[in-house]
């Protein structure tokens, strides 16, 4: 399989521990078969998330030393502001301590009680904040984006314009308070949204005076896919593409822990001054003064540099192709995945992997357990446990369309040899797939949508 070598060399290493299968079985039992409950030091290759796990560059580490820790008017803030304006093409920048804090501000300003918030697939943190405020969050991703077995399509993160139009016709535009486009779409495979779709969604919304916002956690990866896959963008730079993406929206939030290539931070960015004035007020109450937003000056410095490194084309080519390399190795071994591979990880289809395990017995969670047990590799379930819900009247379980195990790949952290380890382990499990049985959920916390973090399981 084809892979692109790393466009960096390694100056400092972090040692990781190889463990035995017997040890891992013990730790799994102690964790009640929940990957979130395993100690990180007992994980060999950690693919539970790509968030906050990036390796910083020597330029970022040296920028840390320049951090201006002034409470108000920090020099570091103005560097960050300029870097953000350069990539987003929007004037108003408020840092926050991480993405969900920006989501909270976004929800406060754009979600309205009893009104709809249309998304391709809402990420948990905006959805949670919007629902607490009484908004009705609906996922209108295109149909092939909901089907983990659908044939490859370049933009499975797109919003279904037909569904959006129907909701406008049925409920009236005044009952839709916002459209939020998440790039890339995390919940169904890190699948990108095309420029054409962003433009068309924006035009439709504009005709009805509905504001459009973007959840931009993985903006650079989305821009790279547009450059590679969409007609007319081959010769555009990543920055030209990101600026065009944001030209169609009023406001964007970002978890800087992804494409910002830092370990903590978030952003609220807008072109609407009235909205921004309110956002600053909320930031002061919840985050910190407007020029630091809950981050230290050195964090602002690292992010100012990281954002620019995140849109570098050599980096993105390597990044996207490392994920694809894992996908290609898995496909070669027959392992069923969401195709094409997305930006930040490979999503293995739990139902097709373990066709004999019904969704109520958590096939993807079973696969997470098997992968850790066999190889010390930690992935995350995005299926019946994480996305499951309960009928409000009957309390009966509702199962999600997506049933997958996400292998999230941290940025600039693991080598292609680590990728081989992951692929070989999954290939072995796949060969023996008939021997695995399902799991039983024996503990869940009071809030169903958060249950995957603390759930306890038993093996059948
Ligand atoms: N939006 C998207 C699309 C995300 O993927 C995340 C986080 C957030 C917002 C929230 O940002 O963590 O900085 O508060 N996603 C992580 C993940 C946790 O594993 O996918 P945050």
TrEMBL record:
N6-(pyridoxal phosphate)lysine: modified positions: 258
Domain spans labelled Aromatic amino acid beta-eliminating lyase/threonine aldolase: 46-424
Alphabetical UniProt keywords: Aminotransferase, Lyase, Pyridoxal phosphate, Transferase
Signal peptide as annotated in the record: none
Gene Ontology MF: a single term: carbon-carbon lyase activity
Entry-linked InterPro entries: ArAA_b-elim_lyase/Thr_aldolase, Beta-eliminating_lyase, PyrdxlP-dep_Trfase, PyrdxlP-dep_Trfase_major, PyrdxlP-dep_Trfase_small
UniProt keyword Flavoprotein present: no
Pfam families: Beta_elim_lyase
Cofactor(s) essential for the protein: pyridoxal 5'-phosphate
Protein name: Aminotransferase class I/II-fold pyridoxal phosphate-dependent enzyme
The organism of origin for this protein: Neobacillus notoginsengisoli
């Amino acid at each position: 399989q084809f892979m692109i070598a790393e466009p960096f060399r390694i100056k400092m290493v972090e040692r990781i521990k190889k463990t035995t299968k017997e040890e891992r079985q013990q730790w799994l039992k102690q964790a009640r078969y929940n990957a979130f409950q395993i100690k990180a030091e007992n994980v060999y290759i950690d693919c539970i998330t790509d968030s906050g796990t990036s390796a910083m560059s020597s330029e970022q580490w040296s920028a840390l030393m320049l951090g201006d820790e002034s409470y108000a008017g920090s020099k570091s803030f103005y560097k960050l502001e300029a870097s953000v304006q350069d990539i987003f093409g929007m004037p108003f920048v408020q840092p926050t301590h991480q993405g969900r804090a920006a989501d909270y501000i976004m929800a406060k300003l754009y979600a309205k009680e009893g009104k709809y918030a249309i998304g391709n697939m809402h990420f948990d943190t905006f959805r949670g904040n919007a629902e607490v405020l009484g908004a009705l969050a609906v996922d209108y991703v295109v149909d092939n984006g909901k089907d983990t077995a659908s044939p490859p399509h370049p933009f499975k993160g797109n919003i279904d314009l037909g569904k959006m139009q129907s909701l406008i016709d049925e409920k009236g535009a005044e009952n839709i308070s916002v459209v939020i486009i998440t790039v890339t779409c995390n919940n169904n495979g890190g699948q990108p949204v095309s420029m054409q779709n962003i433009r068309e969604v924006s035009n439709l919304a504009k005709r009805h005076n509905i504001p459009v916002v973007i959840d931009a956690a993985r903006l650079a990866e989305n821009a790279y896919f547009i450059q590679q896959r969409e007609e007319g963008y081959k010769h555009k730079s990543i920055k030209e593409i990101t600026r065009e993406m944001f030209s169609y929206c009023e406001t964007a939030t970002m978890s800087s822990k992804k494409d910002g290539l830092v370990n903590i931070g978030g952003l609220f960015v807008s072109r609407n001054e009235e909205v921004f004035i309110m956002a600053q007020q909320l930031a002061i109450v919840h985050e910190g003064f407007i020029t630091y937003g809950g981050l230290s000056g050195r964090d602002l410095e690292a992010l100012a540099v990281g954002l620019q490194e995140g849109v570098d084309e050599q980096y993105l080519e390597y990044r996207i192709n490392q994920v694809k390399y894992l996908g290609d190795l898995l496909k070669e071994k027959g392992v069923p995945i969401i195709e094409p591979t997305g930006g930040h990880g490979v999503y293995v289809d739990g139902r097709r992997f373990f066709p004999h395990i019904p969704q109520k017995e958590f096939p993807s969670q079973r696969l997470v357990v098997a992968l850790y047990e066999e190889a010390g590799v930690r992935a995350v379930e995005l299926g019946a446990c994480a996305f499951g819900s309960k009928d409000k009247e009957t309390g009966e379980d509702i199962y999600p369309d997506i049933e997958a195990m996400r292998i999230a790949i941290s940025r600039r952290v693991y080598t292609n040899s680590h990728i081989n380890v992951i692929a070989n382990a999954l290939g072995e499990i796949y060969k023996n797939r008939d021997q695995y049985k399902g799991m039983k959920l024996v503990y869940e916390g009071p809030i169903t949508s958060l249950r995957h973090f603390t759930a306890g399981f038993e093996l059948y």
